[in-house]
Design goal:
- This is Mechanosensing system component YbdG.
- One of its GO terms (biological process) is cellular response to osmotic stress.
- Belongs to the MscS (TC 1.A.23) family.
- Pfam families: MS_channel_2nd, MS_channel_3rd.
- With about 425 residues, the chain is an alpha+beta fold.
- It has three domains: about 130 residues, no CATH class; about 120 residues, SH3 type barrels (Roll); about 140 residues, Alpha-Beta Plaits (2-Layer Sandwich).
- The strands form two sheets. Strands 4-3-2-1-5 form a five-stranded antiparallel β-sheet. Strands 6-8-7 form a three-stranded antiparallel β-sheet.
- A hairpin with a 4-residue loop joins strand 3 and strand 4.
- The longest helix has about 35 residues.
- The chain is rod-shaped and about 130 Å long.
- It starts with a helix and ends in a 9-residue tail after the last helix.
- The mean pLDDT is about 80.
């Protein structure tokens, strides 16, 4: 019907209605409508969509997610290609070379922008996932990159089938012989994809976790988990890149449990000189009783010791007989009470002061407790304050720290005068 209308229109213009002129008119109409469609979609509809997206309460989120990723723009190009293809099938001669060429080009155009629409949609979902706690902890970037890689391979096969005019099923059946080659070429992406799924399913790692992996020199916060690599920003601001599959095959330490618990462990020792360990004298007891922290402990222990010695008829004239208080045991009791009353020690977590095996470096007295914060700077300040106090009170109990002689100690030694008159 449109051919007759074009023939009549060309006759009125005194133009011979040949096949060539009809083809030129048809192509002109296709191009004209394509231009009009482009102007309507990109200058009118797109502006309206931007205004609608910017009128809500989450303006910045949707504007960045939908329009900076160019999702609507790519969908518009697919609509334009569909309109061109429909026009070509309606206006051009069936089976003509021109129709075949336009159909092939529009199909390739639709395939290309379909893949780009998928990419944009995945990028939008990845960006929006950062606003949800449930999805923010998942390594979605690696999974989405795997989907992108798969879609590119499928699109390439379909594009070849369009160009040669064969069914894509035939090409897919022929890929079986190339499976080994494909597995070799895409070994790292495939292993990374599997590793990313395992990390996500088992909740082993997510962006923001503190990861420590000494084999790769990594000790810092995870900033990115993608298809093939995991990026860790170390505490010295350097970046360490780790293969994703290495997190499955090798061992690593994730400090997320510590961060979520609300407490960070203190496990540090002071070494006491063995020669300074002794029984408390009456003067020592009278002096230590003045401490409000130690007074209840000393009174309780003195009562227990006196009852035991009296019940067993102990001769206290020899220090080898009976039970007595030691300065080291009293020091441990003081530290226990001190930690229990410290405002920055977590009261719900394990806390103790223990004596470790004596070595050539002295008797280790270890403080094992948890602070009520996981912030690194606060933790270090709390730990330093505690051990500042510990080092300062050690002499009060008649104890000495063990330390190797320094150059200052050597210089204090006075050699005897061997000169003769």
């Amino acid at each position: 019907m449109w051919v007759e209308a074009v023939t009549q229109w060309l006759g009125k213009l005194s133009i011979e209605p040949t096949a060539l002129t009809q083809l030129v008119v048809a192509l002109g109409l296709i191009v004209l409508i394509a231009i009009l469609t482009h102007l309507v979609l990109h200058r009118l509809v797109r502006r309206v969509m931007e205004w609608l997206a910017g009128s809500g309460g989450a303006e910045q989120v949707w504007k960045r997610a939908l329009f900076e990723q160019q999702l609507f723009k790519r969908v518009s190009f697919i609509v334009q290609a569909l309109i061109i293809q429909i026009q070509a099938q309606h206006w051009l001669e069936p089976g003509s070379m021109t129709l075949l060429l336009i159909s092939s080009l529009t199909q390739l155009w639709i395939l290309l922008f379909s893949v780009l629409v998928l990419f944009a949609l995945l990028d939008v979902l990845l960006e929006l996932s950062q606003y949800s706690r449930a999805t923010r902890d998942l390594p979605l970037r690696g999974i989405f990159q795997g989907v992108k890689l798969t879609s590119v391979v499928l699109a390439a096969v379909i594009a070849v089938s369009i160009l040669i005019g064969k069914s894509p099923v035939i090409l897919f059946s022929g890929l079986g012989a190339m499976t080994a080659v494909l597995l070799l070429v895409f070994k790292d992406p495939l292993m990374g994809l599997v590793a990313g799924i395992q990390l996500s399913a088992n909740k082993m790692l997510s962006v923001g976790d503190w990861l420590e992996m000494s084999r790769y020199g990594a000790d810092g916060a995870v900033v990115d988990v993608n298809l093939t690599t995991v990026k860790v920003q170390n505490w010295d601001n350097t970046i360490t890149t780790i293969p994703t599959y290495a997190l499955i095959s090798d061992s690593f330490k994730n400090w997320r449990g510590m961060q979520e618990s609300g407490g960070r462990r203190i496990m540090r020792s002071v070494h006491i000189d063995v020669s300074s360990v002794a029984f408390l004298t009456e003067d020592d007891i009278a002096r230590l009783r003045k401490s409000s922290v130690l007074s209840p402990y000393i009174e309780q222990r003195l009562t227990e010791v006196a009852q035991y010695n009296e019940a067993h008829g102990i001769d206290l004239s020899s220090p080898l007989n009976g039970r007595r208080l030691t300065n080291l045991g009293t020091f441990r009791a003081y530290l226990n009470t001190y930690l229990k009353t410290h405002p920055r020690i977590h009261p719900q977590m394990i806390m103790m002061v223990r004596q470790l095996e004596a070595t050539s470096q002295g008797v280790p007295i270890q403080i094992y407790a948890f602070t009520n914060t996981t912030a690194w700077v606060e933790y270090e300040n709390i730990q330093a304050d505690i051990f500042d106090h510990v080092l300062a009170v050690i002499p009060v109990f008649g104890l000495r720290l063990h330390q190797s002689p320094t150059g200052y100690d050597i210089r204090q030694l006075k050699l005897p005068d061997t000169r003769t008159d």
